[in-house]
Amino acid sequence: LPLSAAANLHPGAEQKVVFITARVHPGETPSSFVCQGIIDFLVSHHPIAKVLRDHLVFKIAPMLNPDGVYLGNYRCSLMGFDLNRHWANPSPWAHPTLHGVKELIIDMYNNPKINLEFYIDIHAHSTMMNGFMYGNIFEDEERFQRQAVFPKLLCQNAEDFSYSSTSFNRDAVKAGTGRRFLGGLLNDTSYCYTLEVSFYSYILGGTAAAVPYTEEAYMKLGRNVARTFLDYYRLNSLVEGPLAPTPKTR
């Protein structure tokens, strides 16, 4: 969803694109609330949202498995596929949403006027607490270290996000996921992550008490994901007026 007609959308201007997907596993309902928080913030009148729209293009596919959601499936699509294992070679007949999104991403990757800088796939986790990320492993040490910057910044902005639970891997079982496949396809200026959030609770730093997640808390994490791009791209000085605090989690 390109969200503004700012300078980054003018003909001939280079576009920096952040691509976000969610709900590839239909039972992972928290991912929809996190994605809703991102969308609501980006289209709001918040001064940070305005700066982000002026400098970045956000493309969001909020539900990659609509038939599975409609049917009430936990993990699979109408045809019984775990779509998050078919990114390498999605069929336009059997995996149409993946096929369409992958084609769009490849078109952007091949367009010299577009820099696809982030891909974030939002999920929910049934056993771990807090929000955290999975990233990829690269032989280039500098690229590997640069990949850690965004989750470190997100950890500073979101009290429920855990950098200590964030991990980087290339397990064979994950090879067909969006994060793994696109991490191998895109160039070294692109960063691909899986954003996970607990189904049930988070633990604040320095405490041992679990705080149950609410719909609002999930959406707050989404807002904080969006806000973190301001820090990542060092756009803070462009924000006009006093910053409204992120609403407290209920």
From TrEMBL:
<dbReference type="InterPro" id="IPR050821">
    <property type="entry name" value="Cytosolic_carboxypeptidase"/>
</dbReference>
<keyword id="KW-0121">Carboxypeptidase</keyword>
<protein>
    <submittedName>
        <fullName>CBPC6 carboxypeptidase</fullName>
    </submittedName>
</protein>
<dbReference type="Pfam" id="PF00246">
    <property type="entry name" value="Peptidase_M14"/>
</dbReference>
<comment type="similarity">
    <text>Belongs to the peptidase M14 family.</text>
</comment>
<dbReference type="GO" id="GO:0006508">
    <property type="term" value="P:proteolysis"/>
</dbReference>
<dbReference type="GO" id="GO:0008270">
    <property type="term" value="F:zinc ion binding"/>
</dbReference>
<dbReference type="GO" id="GO:0004181">
    <property type="term" value="F:metallocarboxypeptidase activity"/>
</dbReference>
<dbReference type="InterPro" id="IPR000834">
    <property type="entry name" value="Peptidase_M14"/>
</dbReference>
<feature type="domain" description="Peptidase M14">
    <location>
        <begin position="1"/>
        <end position="233"/>
    </location>
</feature>
<keyword id="KW-0378">Hydrolase</keyword>
<keyword id="KW-0645">Protease</keyword>
<feature type="active site" description="Proton donor/acceptor">
    <location>
        <position position="196"/>
    </location>
</feature>
